[in-house]
Amino acid sequence: MFRMSKLIFPLIFIFISANAFAQSKSPIWNDVAKADLELMGDYVGGWLGEPESNWPNNNPRLFAQVVNAGVGIYDIHLMQDLNRRAQPEFSTRANVKRDKITVKKDGWNFVISKDKIEGSRMFGEEEVNFLLERDPRISPTMGKKPPQGAIVLFDGSDFDEWEHTDGRAVTWNILADGSMEIEPTAENRDADPKIGGGIQTKRKFGDVKFHMEFRYPVEPDRSGQGRGNSGLFFQGAYEAQVLNSYGLEGFWNQLGALYKHSAPLVNAARAPMIWQTYDVTYTAARFEEGVVVENPRITVYLNGTLVQDDVELKHHTAHWQNSREDPVPDEPGPIMLQDHSNRIQFRNIWIKEL
Q1: Which of 79-93, 190-204, 242-256 has the lowest mean pLDDT?
Q2: Could you tell me if 253 and 222 lie in one domain?
Q3: Which of 9, 194, 197, 348 is the most buried (most CB within 10 A)?
Q4: Are residues 200 and 293 in the same domain?
């Protein structure tokens, strides 16, 4: 029998101190709660000892997600894998006290402290211990270099390849770490000249392979579509959603979705403040004598996980029903990044035409 007591976890912890995020002028990135830095995120581990109960013997691994749900408030999900759609073994909401989260409920008794979860669960009359350690789960395509023939759209030095969707020069920020950050219109309504708004590439594209890295802040006072919201658009019409969807169910308006078109196959979202990756292959529509004979298609990997598998785009990924009926683009279009009033950061953006 496979026993957790014989396992050694080869985990490398790459969580970074708060000072590493002090690149932005915004307090959203700088004034981060200690608990968000030390407790929030994915945990990997399993049951300890030689339990008599069949369940932990047959299911030796155990995983957890600690999700910010408000100021000092966290949702905790314990499960058999990190697919949030999998039925959790246990879920609860709890508050931070003295830099720890303590839970004693429904036969579970554990403490979440810096980078680990230690505790036990009752199986009938038997108490079985477990240990989980925090794992940043870095995307396998993080830092991916552009292949030969690719066009570098952003390398941290300038916005030469970009403009606002209304033709203005880009008013977003380039940070000291080589990332760009949305400067939201919502925070600059009285600015003259105008600041903020979505941006798009000056060049136009059809069939492409695309790579982008991004991250969203914690924003504990926000929720739903107001939390970490942006979007990545192809031909100006088809959106791969960007949203803080960590610990959510993976619906068709969340991260990895083709917005209001196709839900992700799995929720592969990471916790706030962790860099994530989008790797996309997009094929434009095909026409014969002005008539669409093949709709656009798209394959999307989020953090190295397949979330959209050669999906046919039967309509625009628009919020309003009548907008979904707009014509299929019949010529190359820009890549767009959306300003949805959240300070999302982006880096290492490149594209290769096919």
Answers
A1: 79-93
A2: yes
A3: 348
A4: yes
Residues 308, 266: Cα–Cα separation, whole Å: 9
Residues 121 and 193 in one domain: no
Determine the structural domain holding residue 117 and report its residue range.
Answer: 4-134
Q: Please identify which residue in the block is written with the tokens 């628009």.
A: 318
Q: Render pLDDT for 313-322 as a digit per residue (tens, 0 to 9).
A: 999 998 877 7
Nearest C-alpha neighbor of 97 from the set 112, 77, 109, 119: 112
Helix (H, G, I), strand (E, B) or coil at 172: coil
pLDDT by residue (tens digit) across 109-158? 999 999 999 999 999 999 999 999 999 999 999 999 999 999 999 999 99
Same domain assignment for residues 162 and 286 = yes
Contact in structure between 178 and 155 (CB atoms under 8 Å): yes
For residue 7, the model assigns a pLDDT of: 38
> 64-69 — which CB contacts under 8 Å span 24+ positions?
64/117, 64/132, 65/41, 65/246, 65/247, 65/271, 66/39, 66/40, 66/41, 66/101, 66/112, 66/117, 67/40, 67/246, 67/247, 67/271, 68/36, 68/40, 68/218, 68/220, 68/272, 69/93, 69/223
